[in-house]
Design a protein that fits this description.
By secondary structure, the protein is of the alpha/beta class. The chain has 4 domains: 122 residues, Udp-n-acetylmuramoylalanyl-d-glutamate--2,6- Diaminopimelate Ligase, Chain: A, domain 1; 124 residues, 2-Layer Sandwich (Beta-Lactamase), CATH 3.30.450.30; 146 residues, Reverse transcriptase/Diguanylate cyclase domain (Alpha-Beta Plaits); 98 residues, Arc Repressor Mutant, subunit A, CATH 1.10.10. 52% of the residues lie in helices and 16% in strands. A 5-stranded mixed β-sheet has the order 1-5-4-3-2, with helices on both faces. It starts with 5 loop residues before the first helix and ends with a helix.
């Protein structure tokens, strides 16, 4: 149901014979009101668009200054009226202007009474408005009941389809179809909103309000059209609600219904987000205590986990993801990018996961059922890492620990994931996933990290070389790294360093003088190579520690 169109008035309200002289393309325009041209200024009352203007050409001559019918048609077309009806025949100039503007020009019988006609059409429009208001109130009542009951998006789309007899789609902010409902065609056949149409709606300039969301009527194929309303939460678009039906009868009631339903959808989403945020805080606090509290015992942890839906008696793998950039802001909660990682990990594991998001870092505990599931989990983490990077607009790295049991084991797995993450970011170049069990010698070095013997070994062998580099910028440490990367081949190392072979030989002699070791001695070379790997580990962990301790703006 909608307000009457120009075609509706031709069929049932305008006197016979009324002739369409021009503007047939605009006969489907709705008529919101009817006005009669007055013989004194102002000739017409204030116009808002959508009116039917009734004009007696004879009255135009009594105006001061007088107007022609052509001028009236031009001015009315610019004001957005739906149609112009004149007593008698219109002149050719007026017909041409109306046709150019797509303005329906109706020629009434010369003896028609315009004021009686205005009253009849006004009564018809008022009846339609009353019916629209009544139906709109019923739609509002039904939708309000759903909102109060918190029935979810599926219930809202089904109710909207039942109330309007139309097909309904809800698409999220990425235009992914989330819910469908229909009383006619199967939901699978409903055409979703496409990016160009969504972009046009966004550029409409309408304010983003949840209580009065932007709406637009869009033409489709096969005689279909749709009313689309944006679903807005806290000034951000979170979805698109479409009402799809025949282009011939998709009217004002449909617009009101989809607008009201979009407001209810916004309420549902905001409510679900608030509940999810509260649950995430509780779950995050539990994981934080599980990993950090020295007083949380095994039985208490398992019992509390069970209340939250976690089976901590199973083996778990620690997973840590982080932005490759340093700390940039003080965001305390998970962003949509981290949310997608959690969702994918939970689908892979088939259960709820303990997780905690802190600024640029996400920590997950993933239960495992076997080695095959570990492979699937590692693949899922890598896929989610790439997805999160795309959504967050920054490279993301991930570390995956080994499967461990018990509170101490879970903490150990998270530490391994942290170490794998540090290696991925600072030793392997970032933008990748590192598994602790695949780190080779670096696993041993991280296991010894913090021991006095490890740092003493490093300082004794590389300390003089590092000090020399700091004084002279000779780059001897890098020279050694390139030499070992090239398998000790001097020619390839010189080419990789872009220096002459004699320059490389000179640098290596300085290393031998500073360390007291000969590089052609395999034992000495092994010791230096190991010291270089320790150096990379120490540098990586110190960098990670300094980033974690950096003040947030």
């Amino acid at each position: 149901m909608s307000l009457p169109t120009v075609r509706d008035l031709l069929a049932g309200a305008l006197p016979s014979p009324t002739r369409v002289a021009a503007g047939c393309a605009g006969l489907e325009r709705t008529v919101s009101w009817v006005v009669v041209l007055r013989p004194r200024p102002p000739a017409l009352p204030a116009l808002r668009g959508g009116e039917l203007a009734l004009v007696n050409p004879q009255a135009l001559r009594r105006l001061e200054p007088p107007l022609t019918l052509k001028q009236v048609a031009e001015r009315l077309g610019a004001r957005g009226v739906s149609a112009l009806a004149v007593l008698g025949a219109a002149d050719e100039a007026t017909v041409q202007v109306a046709e150019t503007l797509g303005l329906p020009l109706l020629e009434l019988p010369a003896d028609a009474n315009l004021h009686e006609l205005q009253g009849e059409i006004t009564h018809l429009i008022a009846e339609r408005r009353t019916l629209l208001f009544s139906h709109g109130m019923e739609v509002q009542r039904r939708l309000a009941e759903l909102a109060i009951a918190g029935r979810g998006l599926g219930a809202v789309t089904r109710a909207l389809a039942d109330l309007t007899g139309r097909a309904v789609l809800f698409q999220d902010e990425t235009l992914r179809v989330v819910e469908t409902a229909a009383v006619g065609p199967a939901p699978a056949e409903l055409p979703p909103l496409q990016p160009p149409d969504a972009g046009a709606l966004l550029r409409s300039g309408q304010p983003l309000r949840a209580s009065d969301p932007p709406t637009a009527r869009l033409a489709g194929e096969d005689g279909l059209a749709r009313w689309v309303a944006l679903v807005v939460v806290e000034g951000a678009i979170v979805g698109y609600l479409s009402l799809v039906g025949s282009a011939d009868d998709l009217g004002e009631l449909d617009r009101l219904a989809v607008s009201q339903a979009a407001t209810v959808c916004a309420y549902q989403i905001a409510r679900e987000r608030a509940i999810a945020a509260a649950e995430e805080r509780v779950r995050g606090e539990f994981l934080s205590e599980l990993l950090e509290s020295p007083t949380l015992g095994e039985e208490a942890a398992v019992e509390r986990g069970r209340h939250l839906g976690y089976d901590l008696a199973r083996p778990h793998v620690g997973v840590v993801l982080a932005d490759d950039r340093g700390p940039t802001d003080g965001r305390p909660q998970a962003t949509p990018g981290w949310r997608s990682v959690v969702d994918l990990a939970q689908r892979t594991c088939g259960t709820q996961l303990p997780w905690l998001a802190r600024r640029e870092r996400l920590v997950l505990l993933c239960p495992l059922g076997g080695a095959a599931q570990l492979e699937a989990l590692a693949e899922a983490v890598d896929e989610a890492r790439r997805r999160a990077a795309a959504q967050r607009g920054v490279a993301v790295s991930a570390g995956v620990g080994r499967a461990q049991q018990g509170v101490a084991g879970l903490r150990r797995s998270v530490r391994e994931a942290e170490q794998a993450l540090a290696i991925a970011q600072h030793l392997l170049g970032g933008d990748q996933t590192a598994r602790f069990e695949s780190l080779g010698v670096f696993r041993l070095l991280f296991a010894l990290h913090g021991s006095t013997e490890l740092e003493t070994f490093h300082d004794e062998l590389l300390g003089p070389v590092i000090a020399y580099d700091e004084r002279t910028h000779a780059d001897l440490v890098h020279t050694l790294e390139v030499l070992f990367a090239q398998g000790g081949n001097l020619q390839r190392a010189a080419e990789a360093l872009y220096v002459h072979r004699n320059t490389l030989a000179y640098r290596l002699r300085r290393v031998e003088e500073l360390t007291g070791l000969r590089l052609d001695d395999p034992e000495a070379a092994l010791r230096l190579h190991l010291a270089l790997k320790i150096h990379r580990v120490l540098t990586a962990t110190r960098t990670a520690r300094s980033l974690a301790a950096a003040p947030r703006p």
